Amino acid sequence: MKIERFFRIGRYFFAVAILAFGVQNLIWAHHDKTTMTIIPWLPAVPLLAYLVGIAFLAAGICLALNLKARTAAILLGALFLVFEIFLELPKAIVAPMDLGLRTLVFEVLTMSGAALMLAGILPTHGHDLGLSKISDNFLIGLGRYFLAVSAIVFRIPHFIIAGFIASLIPAWIPGAGLYWSYVTGAVFLVTGISLLTNWMARWTAAMLGVMFLLWFLLLHLPRVMSYPRSQVPAEWSSAFIALGICGGSWIAATALSRRPAHEASAKRS
C-alpha cells in the first residue's frame, strides 16, 4: 500500500534525529557546566558525552544505511532504557511536580519504544550477537506500551499549563492558542488509549506522527532559524526530539499494520 511506503519514512526521520543527538553530544561536550541539555541530558562529564555521541552516530548510520539495523535498533532501545532508569527517573522522583523533568523522562522512554518497535519490523541477519532470538512480537509490544504511556503523560501539560503551551504557538496560526493546546492534549490522550487497547492504533499513531511533523516544521524550525545561537543546544534538541517522535510514531504505525519483514519472507519461501 502506498500509505505504508509513506510511513516507512519514519525510520529515516528517526535515524536523522539519532544522528543529530550524536553530533550535538560531540559538539557540546564541554559547553554546559551543569548538565548536557541534549537528550538524554547527561551529567556534565565530557567523556560520557563523547561516548554517547559516538554511540548515537553509529546507531543512526546503521539505521539509515541498513547496516545490521535490527541489532543497532535493539541496542539503541536498550541504551535509552538504561538512560531512563539510571539518569532520568531518579531526577523525576526527587522532583515529581517538575513537568519539564517529567516530559524528559517520557521523551527518553518514547525513543526507547520507537527503537524497539523498529527492531521488531526489521529483518534478521545471521545471529546478530544473539539478539535475533528476541521475539518481534515482544519488541513491538514493549515499544507500543512505552509509546502509549508516554502519550498519556504528554497530554498532562497541555491541560495543567495550557497558557504556557498556548504561548508557544505562532500568532499566525488560525485559532486561539488555548484551543490548540487542548486539542493536542486530547490527541495525546486518544493516542495513548488507542495504543494501550490496540484499537485503531495504527491510525492514531500515524496521526500523532503528522502532528509532530507539523510541530517540527511550524514551531521548532522557525525558532531554530530565528536565533540559532540562542538557547543552544536546547532549541536544536527540542527540534530533533519532535522529528524523532514523528519518526517513532510512524514506525509504530508501520509495525502495527503488518507482519514483521523476516516472518513475511519466511512464509513466502
What labels would you give this structure?
12 helices, mainly alpha
Write down the domain tally: 1
Largest sheet: none
**What quaternary form is this?**
single chain
- Structural class estimated from helices and strands: mainly alpha
Low-pLDDT stretches are 260-269
Number of helices: 12
What percent of residues adopt helix (DSSP H or I)? over 70%
* Binned strand content: under 5%
Using only C-alpha atoms, the radius of gyration works out to 18 Å
**Envelope shape:** globular
Topology, number of strands: 0
Give the end-to-end Cα distance, rounded to a whole number of Å. 22 Å
Short description:
The chain is mostly helical. The chain has twelve helices and no strands. It has one domain.
Could you give the topology of this structure?
Layout: H1 2-7, H2 9-27, H3 46-65, H4 69-94, H5 99-121, H6 136-154, H7 157-160, H8 162-167, H9 177-197, H10 201-226, H11 234-255, H12 261-268
Helix pairs in contact: 2-3, 2-11, 3-4, 4-5, 5-6, 5-11, 6-9, 9-10, 10-11
Structure report:
- With 269 residues, the protein is mostly helical.
- Helix content is 74%, strand content 0%.
- It is built from twelve helices and no strands.
- The chain starts with a helix and ends with a helix.
